[in-house]
Design brief:
By secondary structure, the protein is α+β, with helices and mostly antiparallel strands. Helices cover 39% and strands 21% of the residues. It has a domain of 112 residues. Helix 2 runs parallel beside helix 4 and helix 3 runs antiparallel to helix 4. It comes from Vreelandella andesensis.
Length: 179
Amino acid sequence: MEWLIIVFILMFVIAPVMWLKPSPKQKRQMALRSSAKKQGVTIKIEKPPLHHFRGTMPAYRWYFPQQAPGPDFVLVRESNASEALELYHAGWRWRIAPLRPLPETACASLKTLLERLPQDALVIESNSTALTLWWWESQTAERFSTYEEDFRTLKEALSGLSDRPTAKPLTGSSETAGH
């Protein structure tokens, strides 16, 4: 009877420790996020730009240089998009299309990336500050690193294509200074 009480007490002590142990999925996600951060990607858990979406999901961001902001657009995987949205390429639709057509190099880079992304990648968003991938992190760190070159190439192709004019500093010319 004493040994039964001892086993029960040990189980009572060990159970919380087992709950704190990361699951295999959590270990894979930690390795993925760590690897992505080493490659210069910023990761945040936020609400994605999806219509009627409740909750949050991981957002992986590649920031544009401040002096070369990017264009504004949102592409949504067809499985999460309305039929009313314009079809773009490989099962992706424009939720917000760019104001001006993208250069051919940017289009080619974007199409290549869209063809390769995993099925749980739901949104590609670009704004003046960053290029963002919204996805459920189904890949391993090794597999995700194969996308890094595609994202870097796309980011470089989109840099400087901002839809908003950049603010220029005021100059202190002598004609305007006296008036």
